[in-house]
Amino acid sequence: MVVPPLAIPMLAAVTPREHEIIMIDENYQKINFDEKCDIVGISVLTKTAIRSYQIAKIFREKKYRLFLGDYTHRYYLRKQNNMQIV
Fold first, then answer.
1. For 35, which DSSP code?
2. Are 55 and 28 in contact (CB under 8 A)?
3. Which of 51, 35, 34, 37 is closest to 85 using CA atoms?
4. Deepest of 5, 32, 52, 63, by most Cβ within 10 A of its Cβ?
5. Among 33, 39, 47, 51, which Cα is nearest to 15's?
């Protein structure tokens, strides 16, 4: 059984309705890195960590505010001292 990351949908559920939320699952849609937005949220799983950091780097270079969800990225960045991605 595959369980999808739920952090972003849960945050979307409690976000006031006056804010527009767009959720992209890269397994099914391409990411539009030129989409205008205020905040970018990225769910991070162990198996998707490297790709999540690549996506974060692109948005960071474009000066977007972003957050990464889950504990994976904290552990991974500690283990990879020389890997300054985000």
1. -
2. no
3. 51
4. 52
5. 39
Amino acid at 40: V
Output the pTM of the full model. 0.72
30-63, pLDDT tens digit by residue? 999 999 999 998 888 778 888 988 999 999 999 9
- Identify the burial level of 47 via C-beta atoms within 10 angstroms of its C-beta, where 0-12 means exposed, 13-18 middle and 19 or more buried: exposed
Domain assignment of residue 16, yes or no: no
Beta bridge partners of 41: 67
Closest CA to 48 of 82, 79, 5: 5
Q: What are phi and psi of 35, to 5 degrees?
A: -60, 130
Spatial contact of 50 and 26, defined as CB atoms under 8 Å apart: no
Instruction: Kindly state the tokens that stand for 70.
Output: 């889950």
Number of domains in the chain: 1
